[in-house]
């Protein structure tokens, strides 16, 4: 007589936590027959049983599918936003996936790491976005915003919109602008601006404030707009001019319209460099075009030439766009910011009346000493040397203490706040809550963009930059907040 085998004890197999089968469901071994063991799903609607020994169908983990799809979309998708949508979910789930017991297989770990490495190399090679902060991008080799940033917004241009008359391209724009910028046409998104120097001319009787964008960027960063707004906000009786070398400027989010409606004293304009330099001591340097060749700083070269010409022609205050105005300064005239410790006069922030001798001497100095590849000579170096010449004293600290008829040297605590080696203090969290009380003498805060441009500023961090931006450029701050968590 044959004895039947003793049935094995019941045992359970649980599905992989990231398979397509619901997590709460349980696989179990059926004991319907001692001869045949089945592996079944308990759900009555989807009842799948397989004879023992037959492999259970393998469901690829969901995060792995998403990760692979996002990698492939880098090549086949024209929308970086779609790529990032896939990437955000895939990397989040992939992180959980790596923590699961499936990682116990070394082969799986090697495959995942290899895929991550391949994706990073491909994105870097094709200059794709490496880091995305909501709708703002940090590129691996440029400061420009991504043109696709606005693709998913309601204000995207329609194909039915008929563009305006094509804008003629100047020779100097070909030196400063990228080809894709020169191909932009005026439309509902890209505005054609009146040209400073030809279409519109400042009055010498006004307190003019000039801020320039000479890198031909049609999409200035929020930090630049914050700088522009702060001057208009704090100096309602001044005329604030934001001039750009780009043929058009992006108003896709309506920020320019909102700013000009809120501040009647603000003008956003293009720059007719040929007209402005005509007849000035810097005309020959500019027209020769050497400032654009064999140098890493063509835009800086133009900026250092242009600011002196603007102040000489129409008078006013020049400021870099990495500065925020925190107090009315229309009573300050004929001055230059001065670093007492470094004994350097900084042309980033200076005011002179129209036709002032200091502005003319700056142009004359650059006419003789202009260096296409040495930034300091054309900027702070020129202002420092001219101050020594006009004040007839090589020790500018003595000039600062006893003053000079030709120019006033305004201290760092007023016009820049901190020296450049301390720039990181502007971005420390919770340091700006009592800014006005702690810095009662400050008119301008200089953020040293050359050093700080890659440092993200978290909105709401209550650092110095966050605090003063919220108070002194409220429209730009709110616009940045709607689109991102960072400046």
UniProtKB/TrEMBL annotation:
<dbReference type="GO" id="GO:0016758">
    <property type="term" value="F:hexosyltransferase activity"/>
</dbReference>
<keyword id="KW-0812">Transmembrane</keyword>
<dbReference type="InterPro" id="IPR051981">
    <property type="entry name" value="Glycosyltransf_32"/>
</dbReference>
<dbReference type="GO" id="GO:0016020">
    <property type="term" value="C:membrane"/>
</dbReference>
<keyword id="KW-0808">Transferase</keyword>
<protein>
    <submittedName>
        <fullName>Lactosylceramide 4-alpha-galactosyltransferase</fullName>
    </submittedName>
</protein>
<dbReference type="GO" id="GO:0006688">
    <property type="term" value="P:glycosphingolipid biosynthetic process"/>
</dbReference>
<feature type="transmembrane region" description="Helical">
    <location>
        <begin position="81"/>
        <end position="99"/>
    </location>
</feature>
<keyword id="KW-0328">Glycosyltransferase</keyword>
<keyword id="KW-0472">Membrane</keyword>
<dbReference type="Pfam" id="PF04572">
    <property type="entry name" value="Gb3_synth"/>
</dbReference>
<feature type="domain" description="Alpha 1,4-glycosyltransferase">
    <location>
        <begin position="351"/>
        <end position="479"/>
    </location>
</feature>
<dbReference type="InterPro" id="IPR029044">
    <property type="entry name" value="Nucleotide-diphossugar_trans"/>
</dbReference>
<keyword id="KW-1133">Transmembrane helix</keyword>
<feature type="transmembrane region" description="Helical">
    <location>
        <begin position="106"/>
        <end position="124"/>
    </location>
</feature>
<comment type="similarity">
    <text>Belongs to the glycosyltransferase 32 family.</text>
</comment>
<dbReference type="InterPro" id="IPR007652">
    <property type="entry name" value="A1-4-GlycosylTfrase_dom"/>
</dbReference>
């Amino acid at each position: 007589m044959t004895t039947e085998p003793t049935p094995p004890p019941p045992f359970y197999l649980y599905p992989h936590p990231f398979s397509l089968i619901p997590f709460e469901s349980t696989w179990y071994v059926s004991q319907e027959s001692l001869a045949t063991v089945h592996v079944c799903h308990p759900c009555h609607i989807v009842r799948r049983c397989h004879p023992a020994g037959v492999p259970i169908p393998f469901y690829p983990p969901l995060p792995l599918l998403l990760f692979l799809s996002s990698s492939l979309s880098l090549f086949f998708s024209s929308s970086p936003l779609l790529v990032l949508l896939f990437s955000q979910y895939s990397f989040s789930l992939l992180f959980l996936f790596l923590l699961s017991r499936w990682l116990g297989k070394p082969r799986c770990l090697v495959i995942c790491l290899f895929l991550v490495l391949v994706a990073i190399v491909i994105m870097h090679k094709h200059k794709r976005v490496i880091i995305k902060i909501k709708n703002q991008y940090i590129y691996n080799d440029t400061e420009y915003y991504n043109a696709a940033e606005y693709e998913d917004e309601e204000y995207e241009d329609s194909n039915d919109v008929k563009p305006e008359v094509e804008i003629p391209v100047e020779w100097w724009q070909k030196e400063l602008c990228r080809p894709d910028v020169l191909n932009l046409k005026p439309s509902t998104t890209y505005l054609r601006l009146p040209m400073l120097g030809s279409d519109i001319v400042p009055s010498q009787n006004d307190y003019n404030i000039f801020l320039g964008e000479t890198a031909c960027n049609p999409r200035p960063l929020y930090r630049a707009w914050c700088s522009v707004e702060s001057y208009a906000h704090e100096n309602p009786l001044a005329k604030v001019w934001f001039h750009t070398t780009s043929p058009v400027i992006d108003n896709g989010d309506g920020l320019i319209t909102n700013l000009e409606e809120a501040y009647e004293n603000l003008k956003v304009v293009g720059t007719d460099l040929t007209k402005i330099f005509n007849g000035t001591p810097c005309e020959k340097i500019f027209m020769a075009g050497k400032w654009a060749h064999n140098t890493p700083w063509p835009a800086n070269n133009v900026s250092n030439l242009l600011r002196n010409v603007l102040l000489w022609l129409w008078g006013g205050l020049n400021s870099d766009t990495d500065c925020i105005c925190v107090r009315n300064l229309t009573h300050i005239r004929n001055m230059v910011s001065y670093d007492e410790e470094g004994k350097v006069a900084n042309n980033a922030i200076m005011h002179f009346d129209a036709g002032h001798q200091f502005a003319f001497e700056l142009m004359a100095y650059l006419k003789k000493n202009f260096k296409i590849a040495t930034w300091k000579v054309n900027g702070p170096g020129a202002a420092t040397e001219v101050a020594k010449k006009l004040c007839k004293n090589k020790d500018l600290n003595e000039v600062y203490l006893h003053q000079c008829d030709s120019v006033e040297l305004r201290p760092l605590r007023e016009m820049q706040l901190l020296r450049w080696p301390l720039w990181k203090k502007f971005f420390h969290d919770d340091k700006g809550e009592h800014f006005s009380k702690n810095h009662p003498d400050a008119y301008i805060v200089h953020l040293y963009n050359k050093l700080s441009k890659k440092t993200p500023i978290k909105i709401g961090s209550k650092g110095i930059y966050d605090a003063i931006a919220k108070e002194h450029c409220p429209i730009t701050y709110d616009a940045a907040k709607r689109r991102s968590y960072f400046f």
